[in-house]
């Protein structure tokens, strides 16, 4: 400003020196209050989460049930902010079509998708008390303890055990049983020999209607509702491809042995994307925007070899074929950017590629975003190229075409089998339905016509749209024809977010204790997602200051800034500490100057630094800070600094 206005050189130099000094003070304050790099004290975190009512056991007064939790006010607001940012980051910025489908799902849908037969985990049972365990997790825990109890174990032997551990959820029942025998794994509670592993279906089964004859399930994922609505979504999108649909909602899984808090539960929030694309054209027009983003990738070969992940740009990963295609890579990079934005520590994120033995037979490539926690690496976001499997099975089961069209720039001449329905043969059999039969036959694509021809030659009859077609009802002809479009069944790229798991990882990554006082816990949520954006306090509790607190509460609320007033007796430092435990990024204090000059102090949580500003500027500043439109450093340059922060900065309050 001075330079632009023609200020004197010495004035400019003085201002620059002040700014440099301010920056050094701020950096020192951040370093002084930075969290320690020690392993997280999970018990202290769990105590805080319960004490501040982030998370509580569901139905606690009735004894609770494993795997069911209630989110209290802070976590509920935190989740809402995370979901809102997910919508902005994906649905809004990518122009996705959002739906809300039912949780209750008819059996036919999940039978078709394969969930009824294959949505299972391997389970072992303790025959002495009936207790059940998930086989792969039991194996993983056993190997962790084996290595922990043998500190002199050689690196080669440790690597051998870790290799077994990394493949735990990819083994067949026979393979994992043999490994249990080799390790002599027994029941962790009774020490008894365990049953052989067998598949346990994870879906909650119910009946629909009072008769009890219609079987249904609580959905294990939100995706199927989007797949069965593909035709309507395509029509809504003006038949344009590619496009993406999204859904946020509850999923249900009857987990064998829920544990690890919010990481393995029986009811959870999911946010899923189904990106429909031509199976031979999986490039993404925005890929170059993220091609330079560096990710930590743990590919199949590294898992079975060195056991170490490697850093690589997503552009290089796609170019070398490590990641199958641009669209899959684009969403992987966008996922990393989203998680960084909401407060997940970048160094504690990696993408692990599914091993061939754990990947679905139809999948082209799958990568899980895993986040490191005190429980180890936790799968939080799946990224799968599901090919055209889902649309294909639903189309075959219902005889409904799940196709899109690719218009050619110029018409093409092709040779193909065509058919002509024989009305003289169809009419006597189907009478009033003959028009529907003819329409179904004439709507068949070239591939379907060839398939029908082969089926009729082999069996004499075939099913088309629920009608039995006899060999003499159609005539086939091999001829040249002009085509203007290609009918195809789209492939699907699916990013699937476990919101509950992401929420837990955010809670753990945000928790630390101040270097100046290990008893003072802080939740360092980014202002963007913090459940409460501002705390409001009065230095001295009087009717006059209470009135100003009430006025500020209304002012901030009207500006859309969530806030919480704390006018309890006791030191201001204690009130700051309570707010820090809730992750409140900014604290507003009413003091004598508020009464005379209508100014307040504003404290920043992580550095404890404070500035003084007019009340009229308060709400816009906090709103801008929380939205990322300005930074705390910029605010410290704009308004007078009251306290530069750092070690023990709050002690004098």
Automatic annotation (TrEMBL):
Organismal lineage: Eukaryota, Sar, Stramenopiles, Ochrophyta, Raphidophyceae
Family, similarity comment: Belongs to the class-II aminoacyl-tRNA synthetase family.
Catalytic activity reported: tRNA(Gly) + glycine + ATP = glycyl-tRNA(Gly) + AMP + diphosphate; 2 ATP + H(+) = P(1),P(4)-bis(5'-adenosyl) tetraphosphate + diphosphate
Record-listed E.C. numbers: 6.1.1.14
Keyword Nucleotide-binding: yes
Keyword Transport recorded: no
Main location group: other
Family annotation (Pfam families): HGTP_anticodon, tRNA-synt_2b
Root EC class: ligase
GO biological process: mitochondrial glycyl-tRNA aminoacylation
Origin: domain of life: Eukaryota
Coiled coil: none
Name this protein carries in UniProt: Glycine--tRNA ligase
Keyword entries, A-Z: Aminoacyl-tRNA synthetase, ATP-binding, Cell projection, Cytoplasm, Ligase, Nucleotide-binding, Protein biosynthesis, Transferase
């Amino acid at each position: 400003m001075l330079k632009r206005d023609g200020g004197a050189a010495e004035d400019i130099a003085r201002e620059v020196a002040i700014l440099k000094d301010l920056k050094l003070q701020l950096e020192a304050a951040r370093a002084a209050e930075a969290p320690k790099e020690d392993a997280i004290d999970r018990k202290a975190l769990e105590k805080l989460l319960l004490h501040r009512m982030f998370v509580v056991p569901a139905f606690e007064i009735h004894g609770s049930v494993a795997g069911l939790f209630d989110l209290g006010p802070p976590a509920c607001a935190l989740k809402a902010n995370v979901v809102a940012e997910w919508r902005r980051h994906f649905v809004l910025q990518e122009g996705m079509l959002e739906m809300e489908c039912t949780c209750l799902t008819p059996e036919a849908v999940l039978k078709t998708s394969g969930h009824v037969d294959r949505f299972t985990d391997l389970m072992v049972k303790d025959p002495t008390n009936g207790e059940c365990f998930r086989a792969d997790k039991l194996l993983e825990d056993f190997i962790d303890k084996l290595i922990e109890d043998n500190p002199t174990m050689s690196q080669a032997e440790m690597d051998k055990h870790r290799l077994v551990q990394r493949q735990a959820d990819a083994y067949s029942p026979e393979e994992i049983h043999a490994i249990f025998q080799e390790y002599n794994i027994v029941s962790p509670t009774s020490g008894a020999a365990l049953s052989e592993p067998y598949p346990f279906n994870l879906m909650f089964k119910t009946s629909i209607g009072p008769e009890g004859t219609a079987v249904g399930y609580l959905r294990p994922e939100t995706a199927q509702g989007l797949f069965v609505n593909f035709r309507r979504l395509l029509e809504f999108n003006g038949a344009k491809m590619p496009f993406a649909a999204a859904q946020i909602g509850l999923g249900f899984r009857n987990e064998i042995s829920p544990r690890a808090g919010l990481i393995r539960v029986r009811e959870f929030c999911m946010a899923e994307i189904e990106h429909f694309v031509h199976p031979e054209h999986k490039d993404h027009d925005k890929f170059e925007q993220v091609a330079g983003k560096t990710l930590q990738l743990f590919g199949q070969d590294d898992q079975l070899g060195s056991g170490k992940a490697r850093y690589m740009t997503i552009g290089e990963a796609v170019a070398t074929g490590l990641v199958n295609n641009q669209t899959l890579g684009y969403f992987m990079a966008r996922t990393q950017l989203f998680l960084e934005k909401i407060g997940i520590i970048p160094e504690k994120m990696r993408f692990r590629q599914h091993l061939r033995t754990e990947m679905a037979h139809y999948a082209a490539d799958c990568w899980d975003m895993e986040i490191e926690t005190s429980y180890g690496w936790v799968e939080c976001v799946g990224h799968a190229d599901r090919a055209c499997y889902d649309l294909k099975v639903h189309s075959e089961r219902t005889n409904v075409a799940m196709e899109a069209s690719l218009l050619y720039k110029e018409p093409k001449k092709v040779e193909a089998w065509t058919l002509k329905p024989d009305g003289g043969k169809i009419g006597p059999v189907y009478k009033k339905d003959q028009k529907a039969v003819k329409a179904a036959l004439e709507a068949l694509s070239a591939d379907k016509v060839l398939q029908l021809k082969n089926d009729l030659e082999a069996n004499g009859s075939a099913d088309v749209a629920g009608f039995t077609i006899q060999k003499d009802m159609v005539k086939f002809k091999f001829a040249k024809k002009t085509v203007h479009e290609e009918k195809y069944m789209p492939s699907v790229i699916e990013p699937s977010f476990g919101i509950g798991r992401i929420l837990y990882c955010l809670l753990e990554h945000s928790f630390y204790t101040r270097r100046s006082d290990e008893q003072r816990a802080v939740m360092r949520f980014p202002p963007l997602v913090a459940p409460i954006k501002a705390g409001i306090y009065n230095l001295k509790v009087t009717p006059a200051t209470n009135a100003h607190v009430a006025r500020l509460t209304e002012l901030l609320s009207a500006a859309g800034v969530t806030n919480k007033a704390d006018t309890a007796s006791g030191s201001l430092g204690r009130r700051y500490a309570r707010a820090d435990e809730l992750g409140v990024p900014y604290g507003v204090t009413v003091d004598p100057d508020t009464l005379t000059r209508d100014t307040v102090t504003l404290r920043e949580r992580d550095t404890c630094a404070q500035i003084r500003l007019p009340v009229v500027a308060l709400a816009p500043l906090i709103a801008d800070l929380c939205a990322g439109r300005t930074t705390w450093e910029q605010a410290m340059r704009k308004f007078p600094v009251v306290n530069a922060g750092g070690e023990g900065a709050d002690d004098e309050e």
